[in-house]
Amino acid sequence: MPKPRDYEITKRRKIAHGKGSRWCKRCGAYNGLIQQYKLFLCRQCFREVAQHLGFYKYE
Ligand SMILES: [Zn+2]
Question: How many Å apart are CA 59 and CA 48, to the nearest integer?
Fold first, then answer.
């Protein structure tokens, strides 16, 4: 379950851009986010689900 990051739940100020404006959809982390291909997963979660999403690991 991802940590609640919704503005309405956390009551924190809305951040338009930069760190804190986007988070991992899977675990809620702010760090190491992958925005490429509209993934919005942190690098740790991406490693776990990449193969399920159809990414293939080379070398
Ligand atoms: Zn994550």
Answer: 17
1 CA to centre of ligand 1 in angstroms: 10
Q: Residue 2 Cα, ligand 1 centroid: separation in angstroms?
A: 8
Tokens of 20: 């804190």
Q: Give me ligand 1 centre to Cα 12, in Å.
A: 20
- Full pLDDT tens readout for the chain, 59 residues: 788 898 889 999 898 888 889 999 999 999 999 999 999 999 999 999 999 999 988 87
CA of 59 to the centre of ligand 1 (A): 24
CA distances (Å), 56 to each of 2, 10, 13, 49, in order?
A: 25, 36, 38, 11
Q: What is the CATH number of domain 7-53?
A: 4.10.830.10
